[in-house]
Design goal:
Number of domains: 1
Order of helices and strands: HEHHEE
Strand content: 15-25%
CATH superfamily: Vaccinia Virus protein VP39
Helix content: 25-40%
CATH architecture: 3-Layer(aba) Sandwich
């Protein structure tokens, strides 16, 4: 999913993650490309913080999230392993393995 999960509130994010989990075969990978908020100080990637604010303004309950948020929601859905891969610019690939 590319820039999809940040469009939704927490309940819908979790629903989409669960559907991805259910659709994948054992050993499959769920890959999300997003402007992830950094886990440490929440201030290193200002673009991501502003994107989250923009989503909230546009949709009322949508928001961006951190890699640890993604891992937590995916763990809840049943995924076992997680990886965050920095990409060019402010985006990252968040990967959850079934």
């Amino acid at each position: 999913m590319g820039m999809i999960l940040h469009d939704w509130n927490l309940e819908k994010k979790k629903t989409l993650i669960r559907k991805a989990y259910d659709a994948l075969p054992e050993g499959g990978a769920f890959v999300v490309i997003e402007a992830l908020i950094d886990d440490d100080a929440h201030r290193d990637n200002v673009f991501c913080l502003l994107m989250s604010l923009n989503m909230l303004i546009e949709f009322g309950d949508a928001f961006d999230y951190s890699g640890s948020d993604f891992a937590s929601w995916c763990r809840e859905a049943g995924f076992r392993h997680f990886e965050i891969i920095s990409l060019t610019g402010p985006s990252s690939a968040a990967v959850a393995y079934k």
